[in-house]
Amino acid sequence: MSWHDLALPQQVLHLSASQTISQPSRRAGRIPHPWSGLARVMLNTALAPGRLAAAAAAFVLWGGWALLANWSAGPREALLAGLVQGCASAVITLLMAICATTLFNRIPGPTWLRIALPPALIVSVSFSGLWLVHSLNATPALWATIVPPSSLAFVYCLYLTFTLARETSQMPPEQPPHD
């Protein structure tokens, strides 16, 4: 089953009693959506069995950490903070490796920049998102909840980009085609 199989059949929009505009279904002409290939690759990569296990581990580890960090505020607040942090950590874990690899491969410039910039960008965005979500949730121990997972995320992203740099430097240079 593909995304095209989920498309609705011929749709008709009624503008008035005398006018209609007909829209052909995407299935009829098999017009691919420009992001469909990229989205499919990202979804398949993010939902690979190893990544799902890592996301589950992140949910338990960082959700449990948030629960402990906020326990003094009461069990209800601690549980809510733990669920928020656990869900956010699972999603961030699913997306982090994809983003680090994509940014590393697309950033031009010297190797040190390609190593340092992806972790800085990814953790800045994820830290800001965590701060926003926990602020909206009124998490009592906000900083104690988000600083440890963000610090470890930065170290992990650095590890990923160092690994990518090492793999890239070990690849043989492309040979020009022989005529």
Produce the secondary structure layout.
Elements: E1 11-14, E2 20-23, H1 26-29, H2 36-46, H3 49-69, H4 75-106, H5 111-137, H6 142-170
Antiparallel strand pairs: 1-2
Helix pairs in contact: 3-4, 3-6, 4-5, 4-6, 5-6
Molecular shape: elongated
Given as residue ranges, the uncertain stretches (5+ residues, pLDDT < 50) are 1-27
Given the structure, what is the number of helices? Answer: 6
| Beta-strand residue percentage | under 5%
Walk across the major sheet and give the strand order. 1-2
Gyration radius, rounded: 23 Å
- Estimated structural class: mainly alpha
H/E order of the elements?
Answer: EEHHHHHH
Q: What is the residue-averaged pLDDT? A: 80
Distance between the termini: 44 Å
- Characterize the biggest β-sheet: 2 strands, antiparallel
The helicity comes to 55-70%
Tell how many strands the DSSP assignment holds.
2
Structure in words:
This protein is mainly α. Helices cover 69% and strands 4% of the residues. The chain contains six helices and two strands. It has helices spanning 26-29, 36-46, 49-69, 75-106, 111-137, 142-170; strands at 11-14, 20-23. It has a two-stranded antiparallel sheet. Strand 1 and strand 2 form a beta hairpin. Helix 5 packs antiparallel against helix 6 (142-170). The longest helix is centred in the middle third of the chain and has 32 residues, at 75-106. Residues 1-27 have low confidence and may be disordered.
Question: Key features?
Answer:
single chain, 179 residues, mainly alpha, two-stranded antiparallel sheet, 6 helices, disordered N terminus
